[in-house]
């Protein structure tokens, strides 16, 4: 337990209110105490997937320092290791890798978001920074998650490094979310601008990350296994931090070390579906036509070891453990929450209602219809790993406080021009839902936060809400529906009670999608 609490120093100091559930102290427990615990559990989830700890779990040197161990594989070390990386969490991953590899690391090139070094320095996160005489060259680029000239230069440097390797070398590839935009290498004659436009159009028309990255792979020299091919005959080990539901290695950062299984027909189907086929630039048509007749087929990746070293599920598992230490019955609902944010919010609202009735059957709670509606909605959302029955089972009977943990990435279809993010919008919508289903004797709190610490283009990571949200807002003259109609959740939370419902962590240096926490605490 001491070790577990090390991750959570503030939790260790906080009074363990739920342990005293049913007693007078618990009855005095305020929403703020619950909110503090929610924020601490969020931090513990993120703490489990920080670059340093993750790297050290995945990589080790044998006692003589002659072999690099990755899972159950060993690689000979003789000052023959090269490193490349691209993604939002790669700076800290590279710092941890360089520290571990020492003199065995010959050279590295990484492509990371613009301003990340300054932000980490400013936040005092020195462990995320490379040392002054690092062998790793850093390129910053892809402002606003879009490929740009800086990212293109980085991609060229990465390609050159990979192409210069021999069969005696080992290439360590560090990959995390945001990697696609940070590694643009369009196949000529496609230009960077054309690729940028196509990516933007697909995203704006609601293409999924799977669809978007299928197109990116078809138009890129390095994605879809291209980087692995460039590094051949060197051995390649890819360490991947997943930011995609289900952790598909071929999708994350467009799978630069995974042979693409898609063909031109798949691309044309996607482009057709989003009404983009007719207006395709000639260059894109040329590249797709060439790919169709390429006798070599997709790159082969037999020399590659792809390893997922961090994921949303891992973060949730840590927070679940911490919640149990705090006396909650903690259930992981899913690490793959997806779907329209409105439906996801309705789902959490109904879940709280149904769960509340199970927790204290005597209260006027959910009806049979609401139970059925919850299951219907769950089926509609098509969440692959949803443990709804298990979660509801944990709530049967008068057994104390419950914490439901989930993760993933709901979708917001932007209609207004307000300021917000996925997590703040979800929290606001859940707050509105909770108000519709008052649960007399149970304190309910919902928190949603982006594990990277930045929710959309805002400075907050997310927000937390309780059923009293709408009435508190009304008292301050804020109308929830109006803010939602403008996708203006951040402005709403900034104004509500002086911003106390906002979750502020600063940039965390990692990225495993969003974390959702739902607490039900009988009074
Ligand atoms: N005003 C808004 N209200 C709600 N959501 C918004 C708003 N503006 C942007 N978003 C959402 O924020 C997301 C983009 O935010 P961000 O740049 O944090 O990317 P991300 O998807 O979190 O990146 P990653 O997946 O790499 O973490 C999009 O899903 C977009 O729909
Ligand atoms: O970079 C990307 O492609 C997305 O973040 C998904 O990994």
Automatic annotation (TrEMBL):
A GO term from the CC aspect: Golgi apparatus
Protein name: Glycerate kinase
Documented EC number(s): 2.7.1.31
MOFRL domain: residues covered: 402-514
Enzyme type, top EC level: transferase
Family stated for the protein in its record: Belongs to the glycerate kinase type-2 family.
Single GO MF annotation: glycerate kinase activity
Pfam families (alphabetical): DUF4147 (PF13660), MOFRL (PF05161)
Entry-linked SUPFAM superfamilies: GckA/TtuD-like
Residue ranges of every copy of the MOFRL-associated domain listed in the record: 38-288
Database matches in Gene3D superfamilies: Glycerate kinase, MOFRL-like N-terminal domain, MOFRL domain
Keywords annotated in UniProt: ATP-binding, Kinase, Nucleotide-binding, Transferase
